[in-house]
Every structure is written in structure tokens, then in C-alpha cells.
Design brief:
alpha+beta; 35% strand; elongated
Length: 82
């Protein structure tokens, strides 16, 4: 199993309905939630099944964490202004 496979998940969602700018999708557990129609592939319509993959971007996560640490350190070392 690769590192990417350990930190990813593939799911199927069914498009229940489209309401304006939102598509209401249903997961395998019957939970429904909206997503912007802009995220749908071209031609997607009600009752289509979408396969989505979600993964953790470890490199980006580390970069943002370092950015936060740097900002905290900068704030801690600032001299108060009067």
C-alpha cells in the first residue's frame, strides 16, 4: 500500500437532485448534502453516480503548518506598539 493509498478514500455519491447552483448528493449511508454544481463533471444529471476520491495532501499540510508556526513566532517576538 502506497503512502497516498493510506491517506485517501474513494466514495460513491448519487446525485439526488439539482436545485439551482447546488446538487444534493446522497452517500452510501443515506446522508444527503449539497455541493456546488460547478464541481460536477460536464453532463452530470440527477441519479448519476459520482465516484470521488479524497486524499490528504501531506506536503501542503506541512507547508501550512510551518506558515502558521512562523506567524505565531513573528507575533510573539513583535515589540508592542504604543
Amino acid at each position: 500500500m502506497t503512502s497516498e493509498e493510506k491517506h485517501s478514500s474513494t466514495q460513491e455519491l448519487r446525485i439526488d437532485r439539482i436545485e439551482g447552483n447546488l446538487a444534493v448528493v446522497e452517500d452510501a449511508f443515506g446522508h444527503c448534502f449539497p455541493i456546488p454544481v460547478e464541481l460536477l463533471p460536464p453532463g452530470a444529471r440527477e441519479n448519476d453516480v459520482l465516484r470521488i476520491s479524497i486524499s490528504i495532501d501531506e506536503e501542503r499540510t506541512k507547508a501550512l503548518l510551518q506558515q502558521s508556526k512562523n506567524l505565531i513566532q513573528e507575533i510573539k517576538t513583535r515589540k508592542p506598539s504604543l
